[in-house]
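Handout for the seminar on molecular recognition.
Each group receives one record of this type.
Step one: identify the two inputs.
Step two: read the structure output and locate the region that could contact uridine-diphosphate-N-acetylglucosamine.
Step three: write two sentences on what you found, then compare them with the reference statements printed after the record.
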Amino acid sequence: MEQYAIKGGNPLVGEVEIGGAKNAALPILAASVMTNDVVHIDNLPDVRDINVLLAAMESIGVIIHRDGRHSVTINASNIRNLVVDDENIRKIRASYYLIGALLGKYKDAEVTLPGGCDIGCRGIDQHIKGFRALGAEVVLEHGMIRTTAENLAGNHIYMDLVSVGATINVMMAASMAEGQTIIENAAKEPHVVDVANFLNSMGANIKGAGTDVIRIKGVKSLHGTDYTIIPDQIEAGTFMFAAAITHGDVTVKNVIPKHLESISAKLLEIGCEVEEDDDCVRVVASKPLNHTHVKTLPYPGFPTDMQPQITVALGLAAGTSIVTESIFENRFKYVDELTRMGANIKVESSTAIIDGAKRYTGADITAPDLRAGAALVLAALSAEGFSTVDDIKYIQRGYEDFHIKLQKLGATIELVENEKDVRKFKMKVG
Ligand code: UD1
């Protein structure tokens, strides 16, 4: 099984190119089935979740042509069936975006319910509420969610909580409903805006994405488009925190600095220098880190997907820091692993109380989920001695070439397959 072998201690220095946003790309790929014309998508990250979704789309008859590592051409004019079910698609949460897309276009969809509860129980009641408000019948049975409608009609929908997935899913279906839909208490994340821009480029009429009220006038059909996905806010944030955690100097390139404001603000608070340019941000960590408090919130608040990375940084900041997780209930599972590396962190329900340690020490650790896995790699990169990180399949779900990008910044990290490789790595790097 693949692992990362890491020798910590090098400050990360240099430039790193950020890829397309996974969480925008997933719904955009799903939405591309809503037209019978050809859709061309660029800046697609080459990560596992994307490849699983593309395979699921192929399984229902969507023709997908890989034009290059980061671009695809999609033709959904010959979809054979509206039932999406395979063992891989069950593993990715974003499979549910095919419901909104197929329901909008065909008024009929059956998709396996997302499984995997790695960071807490993740409801879909708001998605269902939205589909029903548009006039769809929704049935959950045998592990599947089935939605059908004679006709979809626009409606006024108030989301009981801010949900990225529900906002996007309902927005997709409403794009092809009759009349106007208003989504109140909508999520404002950059990827919600990107999906709205994508749908508008296909002829949809969506206004207000990026605010908490989205207005959608349904259209009869959507047409082909050529679209480039926005840069990944969380990949960029992860490398920015890599600079802080390893006391390095990293410039993240090909980013939208506006999307990184909450991340930059916290880095400044903990004593890093942050320089923004048009499409890059440089983070320099030349001083010891300061403690701070942070609470995860929907955008423009501090992202829950950056919570493990900031916790790893605060684990090394003098004084007491408090991290409160307000989006997912079970997102501190990685703290046990970090404790094994020398962190002093006490978790009480949704709060982590952190007493900064002087340093981490290398250990054999396991990635419990995608973002925590990446954060543990950063901890290992700053730690004294060797570490191995297991279950990196989680990390590969969302980070393209993670270890290669880290190597280019001077990290001593390798992808290894077995004990023998680990021994060889240790001999090589001393
Ligand atoms: C998306 C991101 C994920 C990120 C999260 C929050 C993708 C593929 N994943 O997940 O990386 O951490 O946004 O920014 O884009 N909820 C309900 N009922 C619902 C919908 C959500 O109770 O119908 C709850 C969830 O359990 C969670 C919270 O609302 O506690 C936020 O979830 P949501 O914003 O929907 O996250 P996802 O779209 O699943």
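Reference statements: The longest strand covers residues 63-68. The mean pLDDT is 95.
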